[in-house]
Each structure stands twice: as structure tokens, then as C-alpha cells.
Write a structure and sequence with these properties.
The complex is a heterotrimer of chains A (about 150), B (about 120) and C (about 180).
Chain A: H1 10-32, H2 41-59, H3 61-67, H4 70-90, H5 117-144
Helix pairs in contact in A: 1-2, 2-3, 2-5, 4-5
Chain B: H1 5-23, H2 27-48, H3 71-102, H4 107-112
Helix pairs in contact in B: 1-2, 2-3
Chain C: H1 2-23, H2 27-47, H3 51-72, H4 85-107, H5 121-132, H6 137-145, H7 147-167, H8 172-178
Classes of the chains: A mainly alpha (about 150), B mainly alpha (about 120), C mainly alpha (about 180).
């Protein structure tokens, strides 16, 4: 029976080395262009979590946890939630909760437009991605230490 | 009823999921039934907001679009899909713990054993 | 009307895959059948002109399948038929029949498929570009017009992650404190 901690065969490892950086880059692209083309923070965050999970499934959990440890994932997730709340509370300076006033709206169809919406996308991406990676890391660690 | 056949199929999917949750004895089957119910409810929201001949709710350069599909149900379902994933992960974790403690996934045996 | 034929065929495929997922006895096969239902749902979102949702549903489906397969592999499956089979099935079918009766009365109130009412969304679509500056209407709805709901969703995700970390804690810690 294959030991789930040691990773998979050589073909899977080679393909993973080639593609896992591209998956992370694609996730970042979908998050940053969330206000111009379909996607947004949720889809991009899940794709970024999937790239780290791909690394963990192909190489075993030690290699993946060296790149992004469990404590770092918890800190990133809390950072994303606090950033989202800070953007919401800054809107109080303008009068309401979440008021989209303090960055200019720019011209449409460009990357630096639409006020606070790109910043909110980045915060949501950090939160969703780090949270899902923490869930998966804990599930794999639990099963690995339990099977005899 | 010709204008409602999509709604009827969506309701049929919901009833299949509900039957699975009520009748099966294995916890993983119950989780699968919950997942099917979730898919059916998300599909129903988007079916209500569809307009025949409409376009996706994204503006394109140098074109003014008059008929768009409704973007409000799509915004609600977007968060619902990610929440469904988190709930499925939580319930699978509880199922793993139950297997840890009782040695089986059968819900009738879990009621009878005292841990 | 050709686009509606594709949608109805896709919904029939999803219903068939769901029946396979419910009735088959091997756990791995039924998890794969649920994956087929999710893939059909992602294609249905694409036909219904919702590209944001198609992307999100596809990647969420992949992650859900990975978590389910890690839970079901190396586990056993006990197949024992219990007594009172007739009573259980009859009461379940009665419950589903009463649900369908009420659903019939509710479905008659809905407008026909393909003509939405869009009372609130007229304001969002008509004046969304000048108020927010974003060209993706769904992003402007979830992050500007209805950002409070997104805050609630972030809270639910946080609570679910904390719940998983709390349930999975090993029992050995209590034993170490006792001895």
C-alpha cells in the first residue's frame, strides 16, 4: 500500500514541478482582474489553495509544509479578515459603512479602477486560500499519524 | 406546463438528494445527499434570474448592452458555493472522528454503542 | 429555442448521475458520480450566462472531491438490511409527496422561465458603472452594493476553519494531562 506521506511516482513529480507555479500565477491573475473580467476573490483564492494542495499531494506533506507552514497559514487568514474589516471601517470616514469614496474610480476597463473593489478582492483571496489550505493540512496530518 | 420544465427537473434533483439523506444508513451517503441538495438549490436561484436572449453581466468596450441576465441571484449564489464547501469539509471531519471512535460509518450502530 | 434544449438535456444528465450516486453501493463510485453532477452544474452555469459561477463551481467541486476521497479511502462498508423497511420507505415517500404538493402551488406563482422581474437589479445594472466604476456587474454587487453580506460570508468561513481545527484535535492531550 502506498504511504501517503512519501508522495507519488516520478511522472507526477515532474509534471508538478512544471505546472504548480503556473497554477499559482493563474490564481493571482484571476484575483487581480476581478473587477474587469469574470472571477473575483473567491475563485482566485480557491485556485491558489489548490496549487499548494497539489504540491502536498505530489511530494508528501513535509515539502509542502516547509513552503507554507500551518502557523503561517493561520496568520495569513487572520490578516485577510482584518484587512477586509479595516477597509469596511475606513468607510466610516465618508459617512456609511463600506463607503467607496476614498480612492478615485479611474477609467473603466483598466486595472487601477473601481475604488476599493480590487483591495477587497485581495483580502478575500488571502482569507479563502489560507483557510482552505489550513483545513486540508490538518486533515492530511491527522490521517497520516493515525494509520498504522 | 411547457414553460416550467426546467423548474420541475431542478425540483426532481432536490427530491433525489432529500431521499438520500432520509433513507441511507452510511454517513458518507448522507453527506453525498446533502451535496446534491446544495447543487439543486444553487441551480434554482440561477434559473429564476435567467432571461432568454440575455447576455452575461459584464460590460464590453464600445457596446451598450440593454438586455442582461439578472446579476443579483448570481452574487448571492457565489458566496453560497464557497460556504457549501466549508460546511462539507466540517461535516467530513466529524465523520472521520466518528469512525475513529466507533469503528463504523453505520448510523444505527452508533446509536447503540456507548463510548 | 435551441439553447433551452441543451439546458434540458444537461439537467436530465444531472438527474441520472444523481440517481447513480444515490443507489450504487461502492463508496468510491458514488463519490465520482457526485463529481459528475457538479461538472454538469458548472456547464449549466455556463449555458445560463453566469461565467463567475462556472469558474467558482468547477474549482470548488475539485476540492470537495479531494476531501471526500481522502475520507472514504481505506474505510470499510457494512451492508446489512434492517427491519421495518416497508414503514421507512412509505413514510419517506409520504413526506416527499407532501413536499411536491406544496411545491406545485409555489411554482405557479413564479414567472415563466426566461422572463425575470428584476425590480432591484434594474438600478444595479443601469447605474452600476457610474456609481462604482467596475465593469463586472457581479463583482460590483458583492463588493460594493451588498458588501455587508460578503462580510457575513467571511465570518462563516472563519468559523468553519476554527471548527475543523477544534474537532480534529487529538485525544492524547487529555491523557497526558491526567498522567
Amino acid at each position: 500500500m502506498r504511504n501517503p506521506e512519501k508522495g507519488m511516482t516520478l511522472i507526477v513529480k515532474t509534471i508538478t514541478r512544471l505546472t504548480v507555479g503556473l497554477i499559482l500565477l493563474y490564481g493571482i491573475y484571476i484575483v487581480l482582474h476581478g473587477h474587469v473580467s469574470p472571477g473575483g476573490g473567491f475563485a482566485g483564492g480557491v485556485i491558489m489553495a489548490l496549487s499548494f494542495i497539489h504540491l502536498m499531494l505530489a511530494f508528501g506533506k513535509e515539502v509542502a509544509l516547509k513552503k507554507l507552514s500551518q502557523a503561517a497559514a493561520s496568520i495569513l487568514e487572520s490578516l485577510g479578515a482584518l484587512m477586509f474589516l479595516a477597509i469596511a471601517l475606513l468607510g466610516f470616514l465618508g459617512g456609511y459603512f463600506f463607503f467607496n469614496f476614498f480612492l478615485n474610480k479611474g477609467k473603466p476597463f483598466e486595472l487601477f479602477s473601481a475604488g476599493i473593489i480590487p483591495l477587497c478582492n485581495v483580502a478575500i483571496c488571502l482569507k479563502v486560500g489560507a483557510g482552505l489550505f489550513a483545513i486540508f493540512a490538518v486533515l492530511v496530518l491527522f490521517k497520516g499519524s493515525d494509520e498504522k | 406546463m411547457s414553460g416550467y420544465s426546467e423548474y420541475v427537473l431542478c425540483l426532481l434533483l432536490f427530491c433525489i438528494g432529500l431521499y438520500c439523506v432520509l433513507r441511507k444508513r452510511n454517513i458518507i451517503k448522507i453527506i453525498i445527499g446533502l451535496g446534491i441538495i446544495e447543487y439543486a438549490v444553487n441551480l434554482f436561484f440561477i434559473l429564476v434570474g435567467y432571461r432568454i436572449g440575455g447576455r452575461a453581466p459584464i460590460l464590453v468596450k464600445e457596446q451598450t448592452i440593454t438586455t442582461m441576465v439578472d446579476p443579483l441571484p448570481q452574487a448571492l449564489v457565489l458566496t453560497s458555493i464557497v460556504i457549501g464547501l466549508a460546511i462539507t469539509a466540517l461535516i467530513v471531519t466529524i465523520a472521520i472522528r466518528i469512525y475513529e471512535k466507533y469503528g463504523t460509518f453505520d448510523i444505527t450502530k452508533i446509536r447503540r454503542l456507548r463510548g | 429555442m435551441s439553447s433551452l434544449m441543451e439546458l434540458q438535456l444537461l439537467l436530465l444528465f444531472m438527474v441520472f448521475a444523481a440517481v447513480v450516486a444515490v443507489e450504487i453501493e461502492d463508496l468510491l463510485s458514488s463519490v465520482i458520480a457526485v463529481g459528475a453532477v457538479g461538472l454538469g452544474l458548472s456547464l449549466a452555469f455556463l449555458i445560463l450566462k453566469a461565467p463567475d459561477l462556472a469558474i467558482t463551481q468547477l474549482v470548488v467541486e475539485i476540492l470537495c472531491l479531494i476531501i471526500l476521497i481522502r475520507a472514504t479511502i481505506h474505510r470499510d462498508l457494512t451492508l446489512v438490511k434492517d427491519g421495518r423497511w416497508f414503514f421507512n420507505t412509505a413514510s419517506t415517500l409520504l413526506f416527499i409527496a407532501s413536499l411536491l404538493i406544496f411545491a406545485y402551488f409555489a411554482l405557479r406563482e413564479l414567472p415563466r422561465f426566461g422572463e425575470p422581474m428584476m425590480r432591484v437589479a434594474k438600478e444595479y445594472v443601469g447605474r452600476g458603472l457610474e456609481k462604482t466604476g467596475a465593469t463586472n456587474m457581479v463583482a460590483s454587487v458583492i463588493l460594493d452594493f451588498r458588501a455587508y453580506d460578503t462580510l457575513g460570508e467571511a465570518t462563516i468561513l472563519f468559523t468553519a476553519v476554527m471548527g475543523v481545527l477544534a474537532v480534529i484535535r487529538k485525544v492524547g492531550r487529555i491523557k497526558n494531562e491526567k498522567s
